[in-house]
UniProtKB/TrEMBL annotation:
The gene is Gskip. The lineage of its organism: Eukaryota, Metazoa, Chordata, Craniata, Vertebrata. GO terms for molecular function: kinase regulator activity; protein kinase A binding. SUPFAM superfamilies: Hypothetical protein c14orf129, hspc210. This is GSKIP protein. GO terms for biological process: regulation of canonical Wnt signaling pathway. It comes from the Eukaryota. Pfam families: GSKIP_dom (PF05303).
């Protein structure tokens, strides 16, 4: 499972797939399904982008999945998710461009931070709200 940074919007009903009985058989094995990983990535940051979904057109496999994302600036990207991380593979939904040599990012947060100032702002504000809520709870 790919490492992810802290998500400020952890919701109790947003459980990782380890807890989901349908996927319990995968625990402790080397089998990774990138579609499941891609769905988790989308669920983590959907609140901070205009649109984001796992591609239904491009093929998903154990080792690769594709995610379409539209930033709040209305820029569209197709992202490739592999063990190496995430990278932009096209500047439109459901496309790949082999000539595009973009760097891999370890996390979706890092990738979106580099693509979208609006994402950075929304994510930062969500983090601040979460910290304020934690501060109130502890008082």
């Amino acid at each position: 499972r790919m490492e992810t940074d802290c998500n400020p919007m952890e919701l109790p009903n947003n459980m990782g797939f380890e807890e989901d009985s349908d996927y319990r058989d995968f625990e402790g094995t080397d089998v990774k399904d990138m579609r499941l990983e891609a769905e988790a990535v989308v669920n983590d940051v959907l609140f901070a982008v205009s649109n984001m979904f796992v591609s239904k057109t491009l093929p998903c496999a154990e080792d690769v999945a594709y995610i379409n994302v539209e930033t709040r600036e209305r820029n569209r990207y197709c992202l490739e998710l592999t063990e190496a991380g995430l990278r932009v593979v096209a500047y439109d939904f459901d496309q790949t461009d082999d000539r595009l040599q973009t760097p891999y990012h370890e996390t979706v947060y890092s990738l979106l931070d580099s693509l979208s100032p609006a994402y950075r702002e929304v994510f930062g504000n969500a983090l601040l709200q979460r910290l304020e809520a934690l501060k109130k709870d502890s008082q």
